[in-house]
Structures are given as structure tokens and as C-alpha cells.
Amino acid sequence: MSLLRVFALLQQSMVDPAGPQAARIANLGWLLLWVCGAVWVVVAAFLVGGLYRKREHASAEPNLPRAVGGSTALTVVILLGLLVASVITGRALSTIPASNAMNVEITGHQWWWEVEYPDFPPYQRVRTANEIHIPVGRPVRIKVTSQDVIHSFWAPNLHGKIDLIPGHLNVTWLQADRPGDYRGQCAEFCGFQHAHMAFHVIAESPAEFNAWLDRQRQTAAMPQSPDERKGQEVFLSTACIVCHAIRGTDAHGAIAPDLTHVASRRMIAAGTLPNDRDHLSQWILDSQRIKPGNRMPPMKLQSEQLEPLLSYLQILK
Ligand code: CUA
Question: Is the CB of residue 86 less than 8 Å from the CB of residue 31?
Fold first, then answer.
């Protein structure tokens, strides 16, 4: 598990920008690093030089006032330069290109991300969780808010951070210049499972993105085999429907991730577990062991209920 975590973290990096926003931030980061690094080397050189000077000469240095004045002026010039660079970057980041931007709404929950695509009539709206698909090369306007406490949306390969604040809408935008699976992470401490509040931005070609969107707009797959039918019955007759929705069924719960197309997602539990039968089973039986403090109670299901339920959930592609 820990090795898996290390690989997961390698997937997100601010020094490997995949979009114009992240590139600007990375450039500013490198500028700060090189300028401050050069200043550090010069100061360290003078410090070492000073240590080796003969003590009696130190107080009788005729150029000392001019040297101090000159280095103070140089410091001011360097700091002003960095300030200007930082203001220019900030302004560029906040300019939202209005034309052909796509909208995505993100709501933070303890501890997962609700993702909605609002550019369609309400009956066709796509609602998913923890996985944000975007088309490559197109700006995406992201509106963020929170249902409970302050969270922070951060996909380092694509942009800097933006806070999700309860009762307040923040707007930012991002764009991916190349396809990829970019991991993101909540960047504001938001409770016990803050570290397990990850998400993935999946940038794909416009054709692939539209195909994904078409599938997500459809209602859930219907069970075909007796096993899957039994699984749907289990889902609809237990506590699952109190919190989860599956469009096309009687499950309309709105306080936990929408499961209409849960099997299409790569991860479950906000980037915590791979989405396969085994991990899904562990999560349903006792999610508190995996992510203590999360809102989902342990489900006391016998295997004659659990196995059909898993079969049913796995057809929800
Ligand atoms: Cu949400 Cu930290």
C-alpha cells in the first residue's frame, strides 16, 4: 500500500506542467529558485570571505558604507523584480478566456469531490465523483464550493490551488495541453481524512471526451442476469439508497457519490483504492477500517447479498 501511495504521488508534479496555467506557475517557481539561489551563493561567499579576513582590518574598511548601501539597493531591485514577475503571473492566471470554455462545477465534501457538468438541460446533467474528464486544448471554467468545511482544489500539473468555501462560489479555469491522468489532492486541512481526499483529472482527445460524456449522460445499465437483478434488489432494499443515487432506479440519495456510472471510474473512495471487485467489497463491508471517520457506515451483508451487489455495481459502466 505504501509503495502504491508513492507511485500515486509521483503522478502529480508542479514541475511537469501540462497546461498554460501550470506552466506560468512553474516558470515563476524556477525564476524564484534561481534568483534566490544566486543571492544565497553570493551572501555565503561574502560570509566565508569575511571569516577569513584579518580582524584588525575589518573596522578600518574605507569602502564599507558604500558596499552596504550598494547591496541594500541591489536587494531592493531584486525584490521589486520578483514582485513584478509575481504580479504578472497572478494577472495572467486570473484572466478567464470566455470563448468556448466548458463549465464544470465541483463541490467539496468530507472527504470526496462531487463533479457536475452543467452545460446541458437538467435531465441530461452529468454528475460524477472524484474523476474529472476534460477535453485537451479547451479551456475549462471550474466553479467550486463546499458542502461542509473549507477544502482546496489542487491539480499541480494543471494549476495552482483554489479554496472551496461553504456558501461561496470561487471560479478558476484550467486547460490541459496534452492527454494524461493528472492526480490532484485536497490542499487544505479539512479533517481526519484530509490526506485521503484525492481526485483525478483525465484529459483526453475531444472525441474520447464526447464519447465519455455521452455514456455518462445515459441512465444506469439495467441488470441482465438473475445475479445482477438480485444485486439491484439488495441495493434498493438496504441503507445504500439513503445516501447514493443511481439514475434510472429508485435510488435518489444525494449526500454521497452518484453511482450511476460507478464502474466507469478508475478509483473509489476519492483516489484511495483501485476500483475492482475486491476493493469494492472491502469498502462496502467496512469502509471505516480503510478511511476511518468517513460518512459511510459498515454494511453487515452476508455473502449471498454481497456477491450479487458487487456484480450489479460492476455493470454500472
Ligand atoms: Cu478536503 Cu482537505
Answer: no
Residue 55 has a pLDDT of 64
- Centroid of ligand 1 to alpha carbon of 189 (angstroms): 5
- In this prediction, residues 59-73 reach a mean pLDDT of 82
Rounded to the nearest whole angstrom, what is the distance from the C-alpha of residue 162 to the centroid of ligand 1? 12
> Cα–chain-centroid distance for residue 30?
23
Residue nearest to atom 1 of ligand 1 (CA): 151
Q: What is the dihedral of CA 276, 184, 128, 18, to 10 degrees?
A: -110
Mean pLDDT, rounded, for 245-253:
92
Cα(24)–Cα(71) distance, rounded to whole angstroms? Answer: 30
Identify each DSSP E strand in 74-194 by its residue range: 102-109, 112-117, 126-129, 131-135, 140-146, 151-154, 162-164, 170-174, 180-186
Instruction: Give 203's strand partners.
Output: 134, 180
Output the pLDDT for position 34: 96
- Cβ of 202 closer than 6 Å to ligand 1, yes or no, is no
Identify the CA nearest to 287 among candidates 193, 175, 195.
193
What integer is the mean pLDDT of 146-152?
96
2 pLDDT above the threshold of 90: no
Distance CA 229, CA 226 (A): 5
* pLDDT for the residue numbered 176: 94
